[in-house]
Each structure stands twice: as C-alpha cells, then as structure tokens.
C-alpha cells in the first residue's frame, strides 16, 4: 500500500518530477529511433606517441546530433541506452562503423572502441566483434576494445571468458578510466589488458598536484614493468604535458593534441599544429 501511495504522490503532487519522467520517455523513444535509423555518428580523437609525435590510433566516440536537442552528451545517452537495453544494438553499430572507418587509415593506426557493461553481460560481444572484423576486413590487431572497470565488477568469470575470447581473435584490450574504480590493481593482475588509459581526473591540474604526479608516474612504471602500454587521457595544457615529462613511450589523448573530429576529417588529419609538435618534441628531448 505504501508503494501505491508513493506513486499517487508522484502523479498528484510533483509536476516537476512528472515532467522529467515524460522528457526521459521522449528521449528514450527518440534515441531508439536514432539507433534504428542509424542516425548516430562516430567522431575520432587521435592518440599521439610522445617520442615521435606519430598518431598511433584514434578512439571512436559516439555522437547523437538530435534535430530537436542538438548534440546530446554521450555521458547522458549511453547511460540511458544502457538502462533500456538499447545499448546492444547501438554497440553493434558502433563496432561495425568504427572498423569500417579504420580500414581506410594507415595500417599503423589502431581504432579504440568503447564497450559497455551490458554488452559484456547480455550481448554476444565476441560474435559482434567477429562480424565487424569480417565485414570490414580490418586486421584484428588494429582493434582495441576499451573496457571500464564497471564491466569487471559483477561477474569476473564471465568477463574473463569474454576477454580471453577477444584476445584469441587477436584483438587488444584496454582498461579505460584507470584509477577511478576501487580495485584497479587487482584487475591488472586478473585480466589480460594490453593497455591502460589513465583517467583524466589524475591529469587535470597535475602540474600543481604532487600526489597526482606520484600516482601517475607510479602507474606508468607499473605498466612498463608489466609490459602494458599507457595512454594518458585528457591532456589539455602544455603545463600538464610538462608535468608528464619526457617519456617517449607515452601516448597522449587530449584536447591539447586535438578534440574528437568527425570522420570526414580523419583521413587528411595526419598531424597537429607545428607549435604543438615542437612543444612535444621539446619535452621528449629534455628541452624546456
Ligand atoms: P571515455 O571512453 O573515457 O572517453 C573519453 C572522453 O573524454 C570523451 O568524451 C572525450 O571527448 C573526452 N576528452 C578527451 N580529451 C579530453 C580533454 O583533454 N579534456 C576534456 N575535458 N575531455 C576530453 P565523450 O566523447 O563525451 O564521451 C564520454 C564517455 O561516453 C566516454 O568516456 C565513454 O565512457 C562513453 N562513450 C562514448 N562513446 C561511446 C561508445 O561508442 N560506446 C560506449 N559504450 N560508450 C561510449
Ligand atoms: Mg574510452
Ligand atoms: Mg576514459
Ligand atoms: Mg572517461
């Protein structure tokens, strides 16, 4: 009875909540249509190796440019898609579209694709990766699957099984947002990651944050010792870059190098500004 009463209260006395629920239902319906009609887009953000400034890959980031709302943040709609189950269909589209783009790039560049917990739990991720590789002809070693710690929490055995199957295909695995979960280190021990993406929250303002500097450097050293490569997410300023120092094997992904760009911009996008390149070269050569 308490439950029924609560529901009446929502309907009767909180018009604002009612409006929010209605907006949410509309958003879900519009998102379902956008996924169905393949109206989503992918943008690509370059990842640059510090040592030589080479672009080693791009992260594919989904975009929804809704005619009423404009660009809706993926942080918002990916979460909704996750809750409604639409993520399975969306994730399959993202995987196919990302592989299809990447075959047109120089062979030395990989594509990183985010997968969400539901794709691990309920979807047949291995099959959809296989199909995307086959349909595009992309060499499996050029695909990186980015996994957040959220994927690993609830069913470690299943996660490990899926990850091993992906590795058997020749696909690489990255742990995304590294350091934000509660057992990052344990995950490095249990799961076969090839790559760590250090979360942006450790990088923002790192030049004035001694603790962050120590944690980031320890993470880099740990990864090196384990034979895992490191991507540093969210580098926005030269100050942050300077705080990372001259480490030629580090890979940068951040607005300092480039924002995510639309697919049309990727082929001609072989580098960033001369000023940026010089600053990175200075870092690596121990200059500044
Ligand atoms: P993520 O996978 O950690 O992706 C990195 C996010 O950081 C992207 O946001 C990117 O635009 C942003 N970023 C990169 N460099 C900088 C920087 O220097 N400064 C700042 N402030 N931000 C930077 P975006 O595209 O809004 O995506 C947010 C999140 O949504 C992603 O975080 C990922 O968790 C999720 N997402 C995006 N695309 C997909 C997708 O295709 N599938 C799934 N499952 N999730 C996705
Ligand atoms: Mg990611
Ligand atoms: Mg991330
Ligand atoms: Mg993130």
Automatic annotation (TrEMBL):
Q: Where is the EAL domain?
A: 24-274
- The protein's name is Bifunctional diguanylate cyclase/phosphodiesterase
Describe which stretch of the whole protein the shown chain covers, with first residue, last residue and complete length: 482 to 769 of 777
Originating species: Maricaulis virginensis
């Amino acid at each position: 009875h308490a439950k029924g009463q609560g529901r009446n209260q929502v309907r009767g006395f909180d018009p604002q909540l009612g409006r929010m629920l209605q907006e949410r239902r509309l958003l879900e319906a519009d998102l379902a249509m956008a996924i169905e009609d393949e109206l989503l887009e992918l943008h690509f953000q370059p990842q640059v190796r510090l040592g030589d400034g080479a672009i080693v890959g791009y992260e594919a980031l989904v975009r929804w440019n809704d005619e009423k709302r404009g660009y809706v943040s993926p942080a918002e709609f990916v979460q909704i898609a996750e809750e409604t189950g639409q993520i399975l269909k969306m994730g399959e589209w993202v995987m196919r579209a990302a592989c299809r783009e990447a075959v047109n790039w120089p062979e030395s560049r990989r594509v990183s694709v985010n997968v969400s917990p539901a794709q691990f739990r309920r979807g047949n991720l291995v099959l959809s990766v296989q199909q995307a590789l086959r349909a595009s002809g992309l060499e499996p070693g050029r695909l990186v699957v980015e996994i957040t710690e959220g994927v690993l929490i609830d069913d470690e055995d299943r996660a490990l099984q899926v990850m091993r199957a992906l590795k058997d295909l020749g696909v690489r695995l990255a742990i995304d947002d590294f350091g934000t979960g509660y057992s990052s280190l344990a995950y490095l021990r249990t799961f076969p990651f090839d790559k760590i993406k250090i979360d942006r929250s450790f990088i923002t303002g790192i030049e004035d944050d001694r603790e962050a500097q120590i944690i980031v450097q320890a993470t880099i050293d740990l990864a090196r010792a384990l034979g895992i490569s490191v991507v540093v997410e969210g580098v926005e300023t030269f100050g942050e870059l300077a705080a990372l120092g001259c480490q030629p094997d580090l890979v940068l992904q951040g607005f300092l190098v480039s924002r995510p760009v639309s697919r049309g911009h990727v082929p001609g996008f072989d580098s960033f500004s001369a000023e940026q390149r010089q600053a990175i070269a200075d870092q690596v050569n121990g200059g500044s």
